[in-house]
Amino acid sequence: MATNWQIGDRIQNRWEIYRILKGGMGIVYVVYDHRFREAFAAKTFQDEVFAGNPQIADRFTQEAIAWINLDIHQNITQARFVENIEGKPFLFLEYVSGGDLSGWIGTPRLTEDLPQVLRFAIHFCDGMTHALSKGIKAHRDIKPQNSLITEDGTLKVTDFGLARVMAIEEGEGGRAGTPEYMPPEQWDNFEQADERSDIYSFGAMLYEMLSGQPPFEGRRSKISTRELERRHKQTSPPPLTSHELQLANLVHTCLLKDPTCRFTDFAVVRRQLAEIYERLTAEPAPEPLAGPELHAAHWDIKGVSLVNLGLKNQALVCYNRAIEMSRNYPYAWSNKGVVLNELGRNEEAVACYDQAIEISPHDERTWSNKANALHALGQDDDALGCCERAIALNPRYHGAWANKGNTLRGLGHAEEAVTCYERALELLPDCAEVWHNKGAALGEAGQVGDALVCFEQAERLGLPQAAQGIAMCPERLAAEWFTKGVASQVSGRWEEAFACYERALQLNPRFGRAWTNRGAVLSAVGLDEDAIPCYDQALEINAHDERAWYSKGATLANTGRFHQALECFEKAEQLGVVQAAEAIAMCRQKLGQR
């Protein structure tokens, strides 16, 4: 039953592995299916889970089939099929490549954007209402990590029933769920959990979306599981006093200890959330997709997933299929534009964005993406206008700030670009590409030290091209320290000059001029013997460095070694140092030569 696949392997000559994600007892293989020509997330338990109890495989399959029977819904991660591979069951899910809700928690994308919180909450309620109508009794593990976010900002509930498998496996006393979000009744008996239990967990997650931390601070303060159980059963969380009153009351009702006092179902919660949303935004609350648009959305998600695996031409097929199903589905047009942009077909990309804008003129992502294509075409003034439109529509959209930074760099405004990148990173702190671009802008603005910090952060976040920026920075930064050293040396500030040359040589040990000047400073303060090895280092790097030859000769002459000094001055003269002639005459006189 043991499987030791690696990235790049092809399972049963069909599913090519692009990523492997492990967490807790589960493991997910992000794969490309060469038969169906689409991306999947193939989910299973780790080997030791199945090894401990072979019956758990059957339970996993049963819960997986119940998930598959949920069919298609905009706010449900679609489960497609189960395959038994080398004795282990694998559940193949649509691959949602935008990450999960936990990446949004505590960032301005939620804390500064109450309508976005409400949109996600409404999406979640719609997904759960659909799942419960299809026979699911309860989810039992509602948390941000089980709420996936698509690239177009749609929340999809995932992991139906898998927590229950592990609770059954643990037997009496087993628990299904995550302690930070579990309702009081679920701590004692997971089979008691029902829709009202899920509403409690949803309330805990909504509390975290609003405040940045779970209601009982489990993740932040690392309190024990036993203490978390006590708090869920006996104490109330701090009130959400700074938030909209009706919403705070809704969260409070979700988190009541007595299940009978909570909302009866997610449909009731959804109606109240919709009322709050419409009052705050003066716009209709989002409704689930249906009919052709629903199917177009699923082809669109397949396309996005393929793009994230680098399969751009295959993604175009999906976007075209989505557009065939619903020509008025704007995200397919916009995402098709993204792929065309990445393929260098920028004029076609702009045409796609224009189609999307005609259908949905208030989508900030499309305006931002259009700016990116215009920037690639060299039309930076027009691109800047698109960025401004995107930011006006949603000041918390990090992509618009990042693209504005790129555009400002194109217009030669590096310092203004840095400000835009900083705002983008406030909104999405772990975006490697923005860190890299900020580093490039800082380098263009002459702030090479700060640029290096940004490139190193981009590399830590996994961006391969950051290595090139890191490699360039030390030489440029060494040059900056060298320039500072020259200024100090000219002013006679020998200690400062020496420290600057030291720093330059730490960054670039092959910096010949820094070695020469370091030697000159040492000689100036009477440390001639220490100066000579510096000149030797410089000449090892560049045997034709006339300044190093001349300076070495002068230092040798200071110590009375006129024969050696003469050789150095003669070499300097051959390399074009005019004043070397006078130094040669002086050495010959000292040596009694004509």
Explain the layout of strands and helices.
Layout: E1 10-11, E2 15-23, E3 26-33, E4 38-45, H1 47-52, H2 56-68, E5 79-85, E6 88-94, H3 108-111, H4 114-133, E7 147-149, E8 155-157, H5 162-170, H6 184-188, H7 195-211, H8 218-221, H9 225-234, H10 245-254, H11 266-281, H12 292-308, H13 312-325, H14 330-342, H15 346-359, H16 364-376, H17 380-393, H18 398-410, H19 414-427, H20 432-444, H21 448-460, H22 466-490, H23 494-507, H24 512-524, H25 528-541, H26 546-558, H27 562-574, H28 580-591
Antiparallel strand pairs: 1-2, 2-3, 3-4, 4-6, 5-6, 7-8
Kindly describe this structure.
With about 600 residues, the chain is α+β, with helices and mostly antiparallel strands. The chain contains 28 helices and eight strands. The strands form two sheets. It has a six-stranded antiparallel sheet with strand order 1-2-3-4-6-5. Strand 2 (about 15-25) and strand 3 form a beta hairpin. Helix 21 packs antiparallel against helix 22.
Describe, in short, the structure shown.
With 594 residues, the protein is α+β, with helices and mostly antiparallel strands.
